């Protein structure tokens, strides 16, 4: 924990490249929306594979600077987050993890 290296409580299993079974239907059921980006006028090769939209999209994001925290407080916050996330894992994820642990113990 001193190095802030905490293993993830769950690693989702993905069956194929477009597998969305780990996302809630609340989000996967939303209709797609256009970002209404203007044509990029710069060197396309510089940013090959990336896209960018105007800064007006950032208006809904809270841009206040993060409060400064002591390293011990950061570690405590991460530990609490991991604990909370572990407790809130889905039943299916918990069963998968238990099965993996069982297989690891056998092998």
Automatic annotation (TrEMBL):
<keyword id="KW-0808">Transferase</keyword>
<keyword id="KW-0418">Kinase</keyword>
<dbReference type="GO" id="GO:0005524">
    <property type="term" value="F:ATP binding"/>
</dbReference>
<keyword id="KW-0547">Nucleotide-binding</keyword>
<feature type="domain" description="AGC-kinase C-terminal">
    <location>
        <begin position="1"/>
        <end position="62"/>
    </location>
</feature>
<dbReference type="InterPro" id="IPR000961">
    <property type="entry name" value="AGC-kinase_C"/>
</dbReference>
<keyword id="KW-0067">ATP-binding</keyword>
<keyword id="KW-0723">Serine/threonine-protein kinase</keyword>
<dbReference type="InterPro" id="IPR017892">
    <property type="entry name" value="Pkinase_C"/>
</dbReference>
<dbReference type="Pfam" id="PF00433">
    <property type="entry name" value="Pkinase_C"/>
</dbReference>
<dbReference type="GO" id="GO:0004674">
    <property type="term" value="F:protein serine/threonine kinase activity"/>
</dbReference>
<protein>
    <recommendedName>
        <fullName>AGC-kinase C-terminal domain-containing protein</fullName>
    </recommendedName>
</protein>
């Amino acid at each position: 924990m001193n190095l802030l290296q905490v293993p993830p409580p769950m690693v989702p299993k993905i069956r194929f490249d477009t597998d969305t079974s780990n996302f809630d239907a609340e989000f996967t059921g939303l209709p797609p929306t256009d970002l209404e980006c203007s044509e990029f006028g710069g060197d396309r090769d510089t940013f090959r594979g990336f896209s960018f939209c105007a800064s007006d999209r950032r208006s809904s994001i809270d841009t206040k600077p993060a409060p400064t925290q002591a390293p011990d407080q950061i570690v405590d916050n991460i530990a609490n987050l991991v604990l909370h996330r572990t407790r809130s894992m889905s039943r299916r994820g918990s069963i998968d993890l238990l099965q993996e642990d069982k297989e690891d113990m056998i092998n």
